[in-house]
Write a structure and sequence with these properties.
By secondary structure, the protein is mainly alpha-helical. The chain has a domain of 74 residues. It has 15 helices and no strands. Helix 9 packs across helix 10, helix 10 packs antiparallel against helix 11 and helix 14 packs antiparallel against helix 15.
Length: 255
């Protein structure tokens, strides 16, 4: 029997599907498609993702949206979240932040940290819903306590600035550290800033390097401007490096 033949029990195993996708995207896509057609909810959600990304299969956002909807209807929380993402950004449909908020709320209320985080982003900016900073912070806080790295950093920012919640810099710094350790590049940047301000330059530079490697172009451009204002010459010198990377990236070349 071929190693790529899916038994029913394999079709229900999300970890098995992910392992197959990492090993050979094109061959895994066929297995995922078969499992999704057989009714495996995890495979249906994963099929939506690979169709959205074009990973191992031709990119097809409208079809991705349909598979997310099928899995969401069956109760798959991440599929609900991805329906929200599609409607928020107009992937495979017209952008509709209000509808996105409904999907985020549905999975967030059922305990999905990503749903809470995405709903918080809409609440904090008033996109698709009335702006509500108190509710946004509440969502970030809940997701942070669930271990969501990006929410940890944002909740820490509210605590540091004393917005909506009482100012509590020590607590903010703890959340930055947890976010950094959990792998969020913005959390790593925030944590590095705390360390450098406290005189722990060497350790701070290590975290800055992690943030640089993990961050995308828009983040590095904004971060470079902040680095240029630092007191420490070693930190200011990094601003030119981060900016030069952006210039190179903007030329269409890859490093």
């Amino acid at each position: 029997m071929s190693g790529w033949t899916l038994r029913r029990e394999d079709a229900l195993d999300s970890a098995s599907l992910q392992d197959r996708l990492a090993e050979s995207p094109a061959r895994a896509a066929q297995a995922i498609l078969a499992a999704a057609a057989a009714g495996a909810i995890d495979a249906q959600a994963l099929l939506g993702q690979i169709l959205l990304d074009g990973r191992g299969i031709e990119r097809d956002p409208p079809l991705a949206l349909r598979w997310f909807a099928i899995a969401a209807q069956a109760g798959h929380l991440m599929a609900m979240n991805m329906l929200g993402r599609c409607h928020e950004h107009g992937w495979g449909c017209e952008a509709n932040p209000a509808l996105a908020a409904q999907h985020y709320r549905a999975c967030g209320e059922r305990g999905l940290d990503w749903g809470l985080y995405n709903l918080a982003n809409l609440l904090a900016t008033g996109r698709g819903v009335a702006r509500d900073d108190v509710a946004a912070v509440g969502c970030y806080q809940r997701a942070a306590h669930m271990g969501h790295a990006k929410s940890m950093n944002l909740y820490g920012r509210y605590l540091e600035e004393g917005q909506v919640v009482p100012k509590d810099e020590p607590a903010a710094h703890r959340w930055y550290r947890r976010s950094a350790e959990a792998g969020d590049f913005r959390g790593q940047f925030s944590h590095a800033g705390v360390l450098i301000s406290a005189g722990q330059l060497e350790e701070g530079l290590v975290w800055l390097e992690k943030a640089r490697k993990g961050g995308h172009g828009r983040f590095r451009a904004v971060a470079a401007a902040a680095l240029a204002q630092a007191r420490q010459p070693e930190v200011r010198a990094l601003a030119a490096v981060w900016r030069s990377e952006e210039t190179f990236a903007g030329s269409g070349q890859t490093a």
